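Hey team,

Filing this mostly as a record. A colleague (T.K.) asked me to run one chain through the structure pipeline before their review meeting, and I want the input and output archived in the tracker in case anyone asks later how it was produced. No errors, nothing strange. Just documentation.

Input sequence:
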Amino acid sequence: QVQLVESGGGLVQAGGSLRLSCAASGRTFSMGWFRQAPGKEREFVAAVARSGSDTKYADSVKGRFAISRDNAKNTVYLQMNSLKPEDTAVYYCAASSEANYYRVFSNEYEYDYWGQGTQVTVSS
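Output structure:
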């Protein structure tokens, strides 16, 4: 069982930046970030394979967000720039146990472990 702990959420003005971190208690493969806004379904944001170079992004965040990972620290990061009020949501970290170095998943059903979530609020 892998435990995931997110940090870095908070309140920021539109146009600002935040960096989310997710520390895993063990080795993981594809890791992703999802978000859920009030009254909406959870949606994919970004994911990165264990390789670190294979990534996927939702169209809504391309060019503004960047996902990265440090395998030595079992940690994944989400750098969020040019934040918009519509980015307001609870952000969840997820990890897959499928042992593939290059695969990166964007479907939440492909992830086995989830963090507790961290709130990101962007004010206009």
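Quick notes for T.K.: The chain has a mean pLDDT of 96. The longest strand covers residues 18-24.
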